[in-house]
Amino acid sequence: MTERRNPVDRNRLDLEPDTVERDLVKLVLTVVELLRQLMERQALRRFDAGDLDEEQEERIGLTLMLLDDRMTELRERYRLRPEDLNLDLGPLGPLLPRE
């Protein structure tokens, strides 16, 4: 019999001995996703302000695309969905802003 979990509990880390690797990966990917979103917003601000030349725009775009590809690969490897990375901080709400 499989244990049914509350949907709210799905975004919390369990830290059970048999799931510690997956939970650690989930935490690391959450931090990486947070940084990726921040970098993307900063790049868009710089683009809108005209602070980037064409080569810089190309390099930043390629880097963000590669990072997104690697994140997708790791999520699939550990059977995580993008919404699984948005940890519930209780009264503070979700960690990641909704895009």
Would you kindly provide a written description of the structure presented here, covering whatever features stand out?
The structure is a single chain. With 99 residues, the protein is mainly α. 55% of the residues lie in helices and 0% in strands. It has two helices and no strands. The protein is elongated, with a radius of gyration of 17 Å.
Keywords for this structure?
mainly alpha, 55% helix, 99 residues, single chain
Short description:
The chain is mostly helical and 99 residues long.
Topology:
Elements: H1 20-49, H2 54-77
Helix pairs in contact: 1-2
SSE pattern:
HH
The poorly predicted ranges are none
**In percent, how helical is the residue content?**
40-55%
Number of strands: 0
Q: What percent of residues are in strands?
A: under 5%
**Secondary-structure class:** mainly alpha
Taken from the alpha-carbon principal axes, the silhouette is: elongated
Q: What integer value in Å does the Rg equal? A: 17 Å
Instruction: Characterize the biggest β-sheet.
Output: none
Mean pLDDT over all positions? 82
Oligomer: single chain
Distance between the termini: 36 Å
Number of helices: 2
